[in-house]
Amino acid sequence: MAKEVSMCTQLQQWSPVKETPGAPSIPPQVGYCFHSPKKHPWRPIMGYEEIEVTPMPSQPITNTMVDPCYTPAGMATEPLRFPNLVTGFDRSPEHAARAALYTRYTQNEWNQNSIKNYNESDAKRNFSERVRNDIMRMLRETDEIGTQGQRDSGRRIGERITDTTFWRNEVSIEMERLVATCEKLNDTRRQLERAIAGIEGPLHIVQECLYHREKRQGLEQVHDAVEQSLLKEVATLRECQDKFRNMLEKVRQQSKNCRATQHELETDLRNKEYALGIDNMCHQLNNFSKGLQFYAGIERYDPTVCDAARWAAASAATLQRSQSERAKAVQMLSDAENLINVSATEIWDQWSNTNSAFTRRIAETIEIKNKLQLHLHKIQQEMFVVEKTLELLNKAIEDKLQPMKVAHTRLQARTARPHLEKCRDDAQNRLVREVCELQETMEALRGKLATAEGTHQTLLGVRAGLEAELRYKSAALFIDRDQCMGLRRGYPVTAAIKA
Length: 499
Hints:
By secondary structure, this protein is mainly alpha-helical. It has 9 helices and 3 strands, in the order βββααααααααα. The chain has helices at 63-66, 88-91, 93-98, 107-213, 225-284, 308-399, 401-414, 426-488, 493-498; strands spanning 8-11, 29-35, 47-51. Helix 5 (225-284) runs antiparallel to helix 6 and helix 7 (401-414) packs antiparallel against helix 8.
């Protein structure tokens, strides 16, 4: 591996002579590492070392030292083999003979080379004369071709200017018409946006009416005609709003298409104006014009993208697309205006129907409320009579307690009679029958009392139900008459949509 530049290394001297004990020590060899002047991109940088040779200690040369295959004692690998300059001739005489100098060319070869140079000079001179004659003939032909070509090119450029001017005028007229149509589309777009925003007001009022009616209690939360009309009105408003949004999206898309077509027309008009300027300048150029220059290889560069027929077809297609988009825009303007008028009529009709349903519902609620108040008055009178009956029953039960005590006391006292005197006589039987009769009477009175109390509780429940119904009716009447109709009364629905 190569060492870095300017890096000093300590190299140990190696000698094929076997070291002998007591011999003087050999000083270490000092060298520097240098890089090769030419770098190889396909392999690492190579390096070499410049060293200073130190004379080895004097020692008689022996056959062992001259032998190139000498291996010192203690080495594990074979040493390098170097050619021996002393005994090389004896071993390879042919190699030594090839090292001598010898003559490379003969006299005959030298003469043949001179004759070859003479013949080549004559051939080149004759070829030069033929080339000069061809050049003079070509100069006359090219002068005529250049003049005729410049004349034809000027005429074709003039025709091209006429065609480009015609299509430029057509594109300019069509662009003016398209710009006017785009302005009308923008006005319709703003009108649709105002209509969508105007529906938010009636829709908010209808939703508020539904939210207020959700506050009704009990059976007043009925799916009546008013709620059906409100839900239908919400559906109508949202349907109209969706129609407006769809139409607005179509108008925006058509506006984008018109702007894209307008951009194509503007680009085509700008390109034609630019091309007219270039063609006019080219038509006015001649051999004596200023600013003429050479452009090497310009004839091989082909920047064209189509031929004349395709160019005229492209211009006609651009005009046709513009006319088609303009016709679509005019039809869309008519559809948008009809949609706004029809939707405003539908919304107003549904608004009026909902107000009529509210009026009928309010009248029904007032009538039912008056009837409930009449029934509540009758229930209160009946409850007063039942309460009087309960008082009579309680008094009758209390009146039966004293006779029951007397009968119980007599029976208790007769239990104290002596042995055989404890007989079941008529008095004993009568006392037992009296107690039973009193108990049956009290049970019957208590049953009637329970029935009367149940009736009283039932009347209380009916009264509470009637009072609750009256409260519900009053709350529903307040919601429909004051809150909902207060919001809906006098709102300019049609003006909000057609504004």
